[in-house]
What we know:
Elements: E1 2-5, E2 11-19, E3 23-33, E4 36-39, H1 42-51, E5 64-70, E6 76-82, E7 96-102, E8 108-112, H2 114-127
Antiparallel strand pairs: 1-2, 2-3, 3-4, 5-6, 6-7, 7-8
Amino acid sequence: IELGWSPDSTQFFIMYSDGYALGDYHVHLLRIVGNHVVTSPATRVVLERFRSRHFCMPGGDGDNLFILGWTPDSRDVFLVAEVYPDTICGEQMGFYEGFLADAVSGRIVRRFDEKETAAIEESCRASGKLVIPKLHATASEPPNY
């Protein structure tokens, strides 16, 4: 079980595995609103988007979900969705993508491929801070989400 707070201390997460080392990793993302604790829709939105294209359920709930952290302003959260890393999942085994999502609405701000996600994760683990590279899209390129 891992717990953590957003930079502005208005949100926190609980991440855990109920499937040992390989999987069934879950994230609960929660916000403090007044005297209440409210669940963010970001985890549901990210998993629905990921599962619409990648899914394998050899047991348990299927895909894994991890959190790397929030942007410095606590507005967006970076989540990583992964196909269960078991050979039963075939070519999809262990495939993952990163998602930057609005922590309040759950709207996906940007999607990251495996290479981009691995670089962000490596940087985050080394520095302890989430740094999202700027998007250098041209007017003809569609948004990356």
